[in-house]
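Sample entry was shown:

___
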Amino acid sequence: MPNLDLNIAFWDYDRTRPLMDGRVQFEGINSEISVLRPREIFPRMIQDQEFHVAEMSLASYVILKARDQCPFVAIPVMLSKIFRHDCIYVRPDADINKPADLRGKRVGLPQYNSTAAVFIKGLIQHEYGVAPSEIDWFMGGQDAPAFAPWVPLDLPSNIHLEFIPNDKTLERMLEVAELDALFATYLPQTFLNGSPNIIRLFPNFKEVEKDYYKRTAIFPVMHTIVIREDVLAKHPWVAASLHKGFTQAKDLVIERLYDTDALALTLPFLIDHIEETWRTFGSDFWSYDVASNRPALEAVAQYVVDQGLAPRVVGIDELFPLDKR
């Protein structure tokens, strides 16, 4: 039987490069790989189902599942995981010294329903008691014109969200005191440039994130891999092949972390970082399975309901129906 032709889209991560350069291949699949940034992949997959298999925003996937509008099935390949405490920025003169001080403030964010924003709003509510309805939200481009939400918003009336004009950016609005805080997707250029008008809410974010993980076991998952339902219906074996291939690629990269010949220049610093990661997360810190990621998955399923993005809490078995572990 000839291999199945599939177009597969994901970004250029260290854990996907073995698939890009051919060191790892998906069994039974001829892969036409498109290496694109997530912000390019997500709308093309959500709106047009352009790819057979694609990297996907976890929050978008959960929202679509909760709305019973999802033409995809996810496999537990967590391509992107990152804590978001360091993404909360405030003006020094906005009288925001702790998370509870965000109550009643004007907060900008690039996408109300992005996974990053969902996790930040979730930790602000569940860790510090500030509900989404207690903040005035402003959505738009962080440092460039905004793009439309990948999944249409249908927020309840108690969520106060305003779209900023296209000639404004969130960073500029924070700089001139039209915002009090910014929940950023990436490092703000104004922060990198040393502006006196932007600081992190958690200057000691590493310690805060470690404590958060120890108490909650949540290592926030940003992106997963989805397969179109029509592909899976005709070729159910594809899910196992994809999961195996992504896992082999990730494992190959992790093995290279301990190659002292390849990493001699950075070895003293890298070993310290690896050992610290082991102490916090265990040796399987980037696992591709449901069990070890369950706290994060259950959190985002609850957060999208809390934030008015979804009508129900989706069970993990519904999000990853093919995972039997």
Q: What stands out?
A: The chain is about 35% helix and 20% strand. The radius of gyration is 20 Å. The first strand starts at residue 4 and ends at 10. Residues 263-267 have pLDDT under 50 and may be disordered.
